[in-house]
Structure formats: C-alpha cells, structure tokens
Amino acid sequence: MPKVDVGAYVANSNSGGTDEIRNPLSIWRNTVRVRPEEYAVIRFIDEGGDLSRYHNIPGMTQGGARFTNYTYCTDVNIKSDGNPVRAEACPHCMSMDPDIKKTTERFLGWIFHYGTFHTEQNPRLDREGQEPWDEVKRGQKIFYRETVRKPQLFAASFTLYQNLKTIRSEMDLLTSRNFDYRCIRSQDRTSYNLGFSDTQLSYDFANEITAISQDLPDIEGIAAGIIIEVDVPQFSEEGDGYTMSSTPDSQASVAREEVAYDNMVSSEATDG
Ligand SMILES: [Zn+2]
C-alpha cells in the first residue's frame, strides 16, 4: 500500500496536468513520448544535456491510471558556484514519506523528432487539421507513421541515460546517427530503450539541425522549470525553411485530447 493517497497529488501536478496537456507550447507537449510497442525516430541535436535530481511523485489520471510525476528538486540541484539553480524551498524534501523525499537523477536533452511509428491509427482524426497517419509494413508488423519533424525534448531515466553513454562511447559524434526510441512492455513492466535506427529518410535535415541547435532554449532552465514554454518550428518536407504549427487548441477538442493523452500518460507508470 502506498503511504499517501496517490490521488492527492493530482491537483498539484505540474506534469501531465490539464494545463500542460491543453497548452501546445508546454514542456510536456514538446517531450517525445512513446507508448508500448511503438518507437520514435530521433537524432540528438547536440552532445549536451541536463542531468538533475527529481522526486518521483505518484499521480493518477482522470481515467484512474497511475503514473509517476518527476518533479525537479530545488534543494539538491546546485550550480557549479554552489548556489541553487532555482532559489526556492523544495516542498518534497520536507515530506515524511521516504519514497517522496528521495531523489533520482534524470537526463533531459534536445533531439530532433522525425516521427513515430504507432501501433494504431491517429486517435484524434475527428479534430480539425488532423490527418491520417501512413500505414507502413515493417517485417510482420503494421505501423502508422506520424511525421513530426520538430526539435523536441528527450527525457530519460538514469538507467536509459547510462545505456546512451555506453552507445556514445563507441561513436565519434552522438549527432551522427539516428536512433529508435522504443517503449517495451513485458510482464507488467514498461521500459524504454535506444538503438541505432535503420529507418530510411528521404531527407535527414542534418544541416538544419546543426543550425537550430544554438537557437533552442537553455536545457538547464527547462529542466529546472524556469522555462515552462517552448515554441519550436516544424521543418518543411524538403528542409528549406519551416512552418510554425503551434495553433492553440479549441476548447471543444480538449476533452478528446485528454482521453488520448490519458492513455499515453498511463504507459509511463513504470520507470525505465
Ligand atoms: Zn527536493
């Protein structure tokens, strides 16, 4: 039995909360997510990233699915000069529950998200501006390919970060290859992994990715919650120029979207 009522944290949740789901500029909406048996094709934008400590706060979606809300700790994350990155007291460090009080390291970095191979067709097809995803066969499996073509955030557990470091040690440049970022579900446990991608791209946007790296918001500021919105461009098909696609959602679409993201959040129930 959990020591606290997990439902009690929903109202204070900063990750996956209604506002974050509703706002297309939110960090949550701009973080690449994969559901079980799906994978995203990504490329790291630069070598850097943020490694900070977070509290693992249990939460529950409106649909009753449990998930973990990783909350940045404002007490233990300090800059090289010894001052806190964000000068405010961390409420979770004062918790009487040791599971809430403890912190774990997580990685956050910028990646270019080419697209995701889903196991099901676009669930938001009834929404204006939504298009069906291309049906593609890979081996024995049918996938629905969503094209994204945007810089996005990549969040990883410490375990996955360690795996990435091992792969990195055998590469000249982290930014030279594409990766498949996969979610695997087996025996009630969800895990995530990274492996070299063999997806053929008609255009890899290598030059555009290099060019945009210096314009992206500071990753440490995003991790710390100092920057809470990002407005990233969507690259056009051929790479020359790009179009902005952050049209705010209409109220009517929010409910439907919440159901779709509900399912997505629940796949994050277990750390990987
Ligand atoms: Zn803390």
Features:
272 residues, alpha+beta, Replication Fork Single-Stranded DNA Binding Protein, 8-stranded antiparallel beta sheet, two-stranded antiparallel ribbon, 18% helix, globular, disordered N terminus, binds zinc ion
Annotate the secondary structure layout:
Layout: H1 18-22, E1 39-44, E2 50-60, E3 66-72, H2 98-101, E4 103-118, E5 134-138, E6 141-157, H3 158-168, E7 179-186, E8 189-196, H4 206-212, H5 219-223, E9 234-235, E10 242-243, H6 251-266
Antiparallel strand pairs: 1-4, 1-7, 2-3, 2-4, 4-6, 5-6, 7-8, 9-10
Bound molecules: zinc ion.
How is this structure best described in words?
The chain is of the alpha+beta class and 272 residues long. It has one domain (6-266): Alpha-Beta Complex (Replication Fork Single-Stranded DNA Binding Protein). 18% of the residues lie in helices and 30% in strands. It has helices at residues 18-22, 98-101, 158-168, 206-212, 219-223, 251-266; strands at residues 39-44, 50-60, 66-72, 103-118, 134-138, 141-157, 179-186, 189-196, 234-235, 242-243. The strands form 2 sheets. Strands 1, 2, 3, 4, 5, 6, 7 and 8 form an 8-stranded antiparallel sheet that branches. Strands 9-10 form a two-stranded antiparallel sheet. Strand 2 (50-60) and strand 3 form a beta hairpin. The two termini are 22 Å apart. The relative contact order is 0.22.
Which class in CATH terms? Answer: Alpha Beta
Derived from helix and strand composition plus strand pairing, the structural class reads alpha+beta
Q: In what range is the share of β-strand residues?
A: 25-35%
Global morphology: globular
Q: Please, how many domains?
A: 1
Give the biggest beta sheet: 8 strands, antiparallel
The total beta strand count reads 10
Number of helices: 6
* Assigned CATH architecture: Alpha-Beta Complex
Kindly report how far apart the N and C termini lie: 22 Å
